[in-house]
Design a protein that fits this description.
Blueprint: H1 2-10, H2 19-24, H3 38-43, H4 55-73, H5 78-100, H6 102-128, E1 151-153, E2 157-158, H7 167-183, H8 189-197, H9 202-215, H10 219-238, H11 240-246, H12 250-257, H13 275-278, H14 286-312, H15 322-331, H16 338-354, H17 357-360
Antiparallel strand pairs: 1-2
Helix pairs in contact: 4-5, 4-14, 5-6, 5-16, 7-8, 7-9, 7-15, 7-16, 9-10, 9-15
Length: 364
């Protein structure tokens, strides 16, 4: 089981690099190779204990699997629908390997964060040395053949991607890592914090505003961030055009993330198709993706499952993952990406630790 876990973690190290693409010319995340190891888990009956908080995840897996079959019949983009089923099967797989050895998961999260820090340093070096062709060596996505990392400040700081495809998904991961290490009272959260601050990601700054406004233990710090959050909301919604002009259009991308957040053209009870979202016809937020792909019924079911999971999971640190989830749903709403798997796995780990006081009190 330990060897199986290590293989699964290794397949997560390069989330933007697809091994499957090399052999089959189809860009699919390498982590899905891990699903071939599911039979090994099934043969170990001692591990097949289903905690009640996992039931909403299992429900969503069956829902997406059934929807994949319906998509085939209705001639929809069934591959993407099947991807949702595979993603939640992967989350279930993560539940078992994390519960088997929480210390191994913590070690993976540490090493993965350090690997991203090292790679960001490498990216900044090659970008400042005018060697931008080497800045995306970690990705073999066909959609990023001509991708160039945008500038953040002057020609020295860039919107680095880490080991991910783009800056926004990378910062989504960093917010999860920060919440995880903050829950463990680990100094590793400082690495994630520094990368968020210099990332140039608006979603990352919103995460920090929300986190410190709601969860800071210092009244003075909490008051400052509540004031900053309120100021940001007023300025953004009341003076958006002025801000866009003053920031040379930097706020325009933030507006694009939330475009048509509550206005839908062709919404139905059971969805139209997920293909539109991949073509860029819809916004990147969860409402556009879920309503277009699964309809109002599917949207309600997904949120009900998430809410039930949150209520059933027994760890006081779960509250710290609300802000990464909210920011992630608004900026990178597709549940296909690995960040959501890592978010759930982090909560699984903290739940296991909360039921083992000896491990939880260790210093990480």
């Amino acid at each position: 089981m330990k060897l199986t876990s290590k293989i699964i973690y290794m397949l997560n190290v390069f989330p933007a690099f697809s091994i499957i693409f090399i052999f089959f010319n189809v860009y699919i995340s390498s982590r899905f190779i891990s699903l071939l190891l599911v039979p090994i888990i099934l043969f170990q009956k001692s591990t097949l204990i289903v905690d009640k908080y996992l039931l909403p995840i299992i429900l969503l897996f069956y829902y997406f699997a059934c929807y994949s079959l319906i998509a085939i019949i209705d001639n929809k983009n069934f591959i993407i629908y099947f991807g949702y089923a595979a993603s939640f099967l992967y989350i279930i797989l993560m539940y078992y390997i994390v519960r088997f050895d929480t210390s191994l998961f913590i070690r993976f999260m540490k090493l993965f964060l350090i690997a991203n820090v090292a790679y960001v340093i490498f990216q900044l070096f090659v970008l400042n040395a005018s060697l931008s062709n080497f800045s995306m060596l970690h990705s073999n996505s066909p959609a990023q053949v001509n991708y160039s990392i945008p500038i953040f400040i002057d020609n020295y700081l860039f919107r680095y991607t880490g080991l991910f495809n783009e800056s926004a998904p990378f910062v989504f991961y960093l917010s999860i890592a920060y919440a995880f290490f903050h829950s463990l009272k680990s100094n590793y959260k400082k690495y994630a914090l520094v990368l968020i601050i210099f990332s140039g990601s608006k979603a990352g700054y919103i995460f920090l505003l929300l986190h410190y406004a709601f969860f800071s233990e210092k009244v003075f710090v909490k008051s400052i961030f509540i004031a900053l959050l309120a100021t940001f909301l007023v300025l953004f919604f009341a003076f958006y055009e002025d801000l866009s002009y003053m920031t040379s259009g930097q706020t325009a991308s933030l507006n694009h993330r939330f475009i048509n957040l509550i206005n839908f053209d062709n919404y139905t009870w059971f969805g139209v198709d997920l293909e539109k979202t991949s073509e860029g016809k819809l916004g990147l937020n969860f409402l556009n993706i879920f309503v277009s792909g699964f309809g109002l019924f599917g949207l309600s079911l997904i949120f009900l499952a998430f809410a039930t999971f949150y209520l059933l999971i027994n760890t006081r640190e779960k509250k710290y993952f609300i802000t990464p989830l909210v920011v992630g749903l608004l900026s990178s709403g597709s549940l296909l990406i690995v960040q959501y798997s890592l978010l759930f796995a982090s909560i699984f780990c903290l739940h296991s630790l909360s039921n083992n006081s000896r491990v939880y009190n260790d210093k990480y």
